[in-house]
Amino acid sequence: MPPDSVVAALDIGGTKIAGALVDDSGRILVRSQDPTPAREDGETVMRAVGGVLAELAASPLWSQVTGVGIAAAGPVDVSVGTVSPVNIPGWRGFPLVERVRAAVGGMPAVLIGDGVAMAAGEHWLGAARGRDNALCMVVSTGVGGGLVLGGRVHLGPTGNAGHIGHISVELDGDPCPCGSRGCVEGIAGGPGIARRALEHGWTSGPDGDTSAAAVAGAARAGHPVARASFERAARALAAGIAATAALVEIEIAVVGGGVAGAGDVLFTPLRRTLRDYATLAFVRDIEVVPALMGADAGLLGAAAAAFTWPD
Length: 311
Fold this sequence. Notes:
Elements: E1 6-12, E2 16-23, E3 28-35, H1 42-57, E4 65-72, E5 76-77, E6 82-83, H2 96-103, E7 109-113, H3 114-125, E8 134-139, E9 143-149, E10 152-154, H4 184-188, H5 190-199, H6 212-220, H7 224-248, E11 252-256, H8 264-277, E12 287-290, H9 297-308
Parallel strand pairs: 1-4, 4-7, 8-11, 11-12
Antiparallel strand pairs: 1-2, 2-3, 5-6, 8-9, 9-10
Helix pairs in contact: 1-2, 3-9, 5-6, 5-7, 6-7, 7-8
């Protein structure tokens, strides 16, 4: 049977532009994807977005599409529909919502940041489903996140609420590109994990891989420096989760992204060290669980936004 309702979803990051047609049960019906020409000028990037939309529009299902949800790397400003992704230099204050609307004939379009999109996707179909108060985190090259409060995804005035990566957990820590010091992202993001391991004596394997995934493999094999780097990352994440819980009383923290792929190397020390920070009675029972949506979290979150927050 044909789907009752369909939206188009875009997930735009520094590496790829993914698109899909999604029905109201969360089924991905059609996919399209192209590389992001992230080092090119803004118009070139927008043409790539238009190409993905054109591929989706070629589907017979396009006639049923009622709106477009856009998940984009940030910072974003949903109040005016603009994006300024750190990893797409050609887009600074770029009017993405306006340009997407023009590309789809004036159809309604809604913008959310990629961390909030992950939260929306996990709350709709994933590990936060049925939970009224949750923090959903993307731990990868950077660390982002989104909040579910009172059963609804919480955007904040500009759409950046829940950006846990820039909570400071080391007051005298290393400077962060954001201008602060000791941010969660600098410690728990993939580059921070790898840098700390290399600085303390870990060396890459025969293939020269110095990524956080390689550090995770070494930690899994028992390398003490690699394990210590993940312990430090876990402690930074635990401090950020506990701080968030103290402010807004979340009941669950959902952790996804490439670094979360380390599995127990990350989650075991994270759950253990969270007990050191989440000590008040109302935050003591926070669950920490892996995300379930994987690489489709952004697309499904964008689709959730289009269904939930139509213009």
